Amino acid sequence: MKQLTKAEEEIMQVLWTLEKGNVKDIIQVLPDPKPAYNTVSTIVRILESKGFVDYEKQGKGHIYFPLVKKQDYSNQSINALVDNYFQGSFKSMVSFFVKKNDVDLKDMEAILKEINKKDA
Fold it and tell me: Distance between CA atoms of 85 and 89, rounded to whole angstroms?
């Protein structure tokens, strides 16, 4: 799966939320200042060429929808982060975030409970 640019990922976040919509629907959800219609349309077509988005014809326009699930893209992105910055070690990544973000004991316990729930 290809990596998305920041702009492409922003559009995908909107489509994952909307589940489907036209360019105007996407623009409506984006924060101010709103990008130009042509800018969003171009990014959506790039996402289509990358295999992230497809469309249904509706009148003269298109209704776009994601082909890639948010969970699948998130997993791939996290794995790439771990591989590229932490030599493939999740332990190193967690240790880095705990040290840099001054995680307290309550948060660590909550994280461990979530992990243990998944293993059960």
Answer: 9
Cβ distance 39 to 27 under 8 Å?
no
- Exposure string over 22-48, b if 16+ CB within 10 A, otherwise e: bbeebbeeeeeeebeeeebbebbebbe
* List of residues 6+ apart from 99 with CB closer than 8 A: none
End-to-end alpha carbon distance in the chain: 30
- Taking the C-alpha atoms of residue 27 and residue 37, their distance in angstroms, rounded to an integer, is 7
Indicate if the pLDDT at residue 98 is higher than 90: no
| pLDDT value at 119 more than 80 | no
- Specify the pTM: 0.78
